[in-house]
């Protein structure tokens, strides 16, 4: 049985109180226990970060970037082990877990360029013999609170940039799949990061609440569901902290009649069922503009029927189980709900054959196969609510305008995609749609590390998106210096407001 500890001041630290079970979603068995931090344990992690901060802040940009380069190499060398840990606790297939490690490493690579990213501006002679320049400085101790669905990538959206900027970091990973955090912590140490600059507190609401109110935590990055994101944003900001809180999603794919339907069907199935739909950028609604609906649904169904569902460590599996029993049951409840709302269940994932098992609903573990609901009524709960599982809803619409209105009328604004061969239509869509990340013939438009990731509306609370230059801004504060070195001709006393002369 695994015993997943905290990581404080460069070493594993046993918890002293509550613990929670970690499951293997493919079997339903308990594989270990994770400690759940008390307020005192959070305080110990923050104290360790605070003690390490001054020296790290004062270490040179080149030194910091060298540590990041070494961390990048160690993470790359250990990517298989990291992916194995993720797959065992999350359930996603090994290749998908490797993919999330690769996307996280891109942020580390971006952060290796911190000497360039932190360059300020300099203006010589803003007034007579007066110069002005801008600098950005770290905040101090900052925290990251992350969801279960990307136990390596989402923390890596945050900590490489925060640490490169000179901050000390406390990570509170999801208690459902916490092991990746400890491997990453040990690799930071091996890379030469001073003890205390990166800490991990395992835990649940109690740990989150303490981080949100702790006076020495200056900023909090959060990624998770919308109700918790809203709570974290409101609580953190009311305690004077800078907060970016990314929430849930309901991503639509708008299919125009001129689109290549084979490309669309491939994209819809990949984006709908990859990682069992447990991605905030998954496509969960296809808006089929008349007359493409019937032909497109046939193409989607034939591809779904060919998918292989099985344990994440089986190389033949393309899709694994859901993360917990509770979550699986919640996702399954949407199947009957959809039918009661008037949708047609064209592929029922409860009946999907699981490799090494039988039908999903009879196989031990948290299984549900890929499910397709057609003719989902616009505005129904299946259409509007985040399901976060392998359920693809097809909504038939009569025009581009009707599709756009459905997307813009939704609660969320994380990702969306348009499929068309008409450049003018695509350009109009990117201009008119109220969503933060847009794909044009690309189903999962996750921005590269040098752009920033974030949605609109209930998908993000706060001003800045994560990683990229917005990440650098989030983890630093600006200063502008106006300097004059005296020369013999200085002008004497002047009580006027300083203006440019
Ligand atoms: P979650 O909101 O349940 O948990 C996220 C974090 O909050 C975890 O660390 C958890 O321990 C903590 N938490 C849970 N309940 C809490 C409470 N009552 N008070 C304080 N903290 C609490 O989310 P999840 O189920 O782990 O992840 C799935 C969700 O995350 C989905 O809604 C998905 O869309 C979203 N997500 C969004 C993005 C994005 O970029 N917008 C990325 C990944 C996941």
From TrEMBL:
<dbReference type="InterPro" id="IPR015590">
    <property type="entry name" value="Aldehyde_DH_dom"/>
</dbReference>
<feature type="domain" description="Aldehyde dehydrogenase">
    <location>
        <begin position="15"/>
        <end position="481"/>
    </location>
</feature>
<dbReference type="InterPro" id="IPR016162">
    <property type="entry name" value="Ald_DH_N"/>
</dbReference>
<dbReference type="InterPro" id="IPR010061">
    <property type="entry name" value="MeMal-semiAld_DH"/>
</dbReference>
<dbReference type="InterPro" id="IPR016160">
    <property type="entry name" value="Ald_DH_CS_CYS"/>
</dbReference>
<dbReference type="GO" id="GO:0006574">
    <property type="term" value="P:L-valine catabolic process"/>
</dbReference>
<protein>
    <recommendedName>
        <fullName>methylmalonate-semialdehyde dehydrogenase (CoA acylating)</fullName>
        <ecNumber>1.2.1.27</ecNumber>
    </recommendedName>
</protein>
<dbReference type="Pfam" id="PF00171">
    <property type="entry name" value="Aldedh"/>
</dbReference>
<dbReference type="InterPro" id="IPR016161">
    <property type="entry name" value="Ald_DH/histidinol_DH"/>
</dbReference>
<dbReference type="GO" id="GO:0004491">
    <property type="term" value="F:methylmalonate-semialdehyde dehydrogenase (acylating, NAD) activity"/>
</dbReference>
<keyword id="KW-0560">Oxidoreductase</keyword>
<dbReference type="GO" id="GO:0006210">
    <property type="term" value="P:thymine catabolic process"/>
</dbReference>
<keyword id="KW-0520">NAD</keyword>
<dbReference type="InterPro" id="IPR016163">
    <property type="entry name" value="Ald_DH_C"/>
</dbReference>
């Amino acid at each position: 049985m695994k015993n997943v500890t905290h990581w404080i001041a460069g070493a594993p630290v046993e918890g002293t109180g509550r613990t929670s079970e970690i499951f293997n979603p493919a079997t339903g068995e308990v594989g270990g226990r994770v400690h759940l931090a008390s307020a005192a344990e959070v305080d110990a992690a923050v104290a360790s970060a605070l003690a390490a901060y001054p020296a790290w802040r004062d270490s040179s940009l080149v030194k910091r970037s060298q540590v990041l380069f070494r961390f990048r190499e160690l993470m790359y060398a250990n990517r298989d082990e990291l992916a194995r840990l993720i797959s065992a606790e999350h359930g996603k297939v090994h290749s998908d877990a490797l993919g999330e490690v690769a996307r996280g490493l891109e942020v580390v690579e971006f952060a290796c360029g911190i000497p360039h990213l932190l360059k300020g501006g300099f203006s010589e002679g803003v007034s007579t013999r007066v110069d002005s320049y801008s600098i950005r400085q770290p905040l101090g101790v900052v925290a990251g609170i992350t969801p279960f669905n990307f136990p390596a990538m989402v923390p890596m959206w945050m900590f490489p940039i925060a640490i490169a900027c000179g901050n000390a970091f406390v990570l509170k990973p999801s208690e459902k799949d916490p092991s990746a955090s400890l491997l990453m912590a040990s690799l930071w140490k091996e890379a030469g990061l001073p003890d205390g600059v990166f800490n991990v507190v395992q835990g649940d609401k109690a740990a989150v609440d303490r981080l949100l109110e702790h006076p020495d935590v200056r900023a909090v990055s959060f990624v998770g569901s919308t109700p918790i994101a809203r709570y974290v944003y409101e609580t953190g900001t009311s305690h004077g902290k800078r907060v970016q809180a990314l929430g849930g999603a309901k991503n639509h794919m708008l299919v125009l009649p001129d689109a290549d339907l084979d490309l669309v069907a491939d994209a819809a199935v990949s984006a709908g069922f990859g990682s069992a739909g447990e991605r905030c950028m998954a496509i969960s609604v296809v808006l089929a503009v008349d007359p493409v609906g019937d032909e497109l649904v046939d193409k989607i169904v034939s591809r779904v029927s060919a998918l292989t569902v099985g344990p994440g460590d089986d190389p033949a599996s393309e899709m694994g189980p859901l993360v917990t029993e509770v979550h699986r049951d919640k996702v399954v409840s949407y199947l009957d709900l959809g039918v009661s709302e008037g949708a047609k269940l064209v592929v029922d994932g409860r009946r999907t054959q699981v490799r090494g098992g039988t039908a999903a609903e009879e196989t031990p573990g948290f299984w549900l196969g890929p499910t397709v609901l057609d003719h989902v009524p616009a505005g129904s709960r299946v259409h509007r609510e985040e399901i976060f599982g392998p359920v693809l809803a097809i909504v038939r619409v009569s025009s581009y305008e009707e599709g756009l209105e459905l997307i813009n009328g939704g609660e969320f604004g994380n990702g969306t995609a348009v499929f068309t061969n008409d450049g003018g239509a695509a350009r109009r869509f990117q201009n008119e749609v109220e969503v933060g990340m847009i794909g044009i013939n690309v189903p999962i438009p996750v921005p590269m590390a040098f752009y920033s990731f974030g949605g609109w509306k209930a998908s993000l609370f706060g001003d800045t998106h994560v990683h990229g230059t917005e990440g650098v801004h989030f983890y630093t504060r600006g200063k502008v210096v106006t300097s004059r070195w005296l020369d013999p001709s200085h002008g004497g006393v002047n009580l006027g407001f300083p203006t440019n002369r």
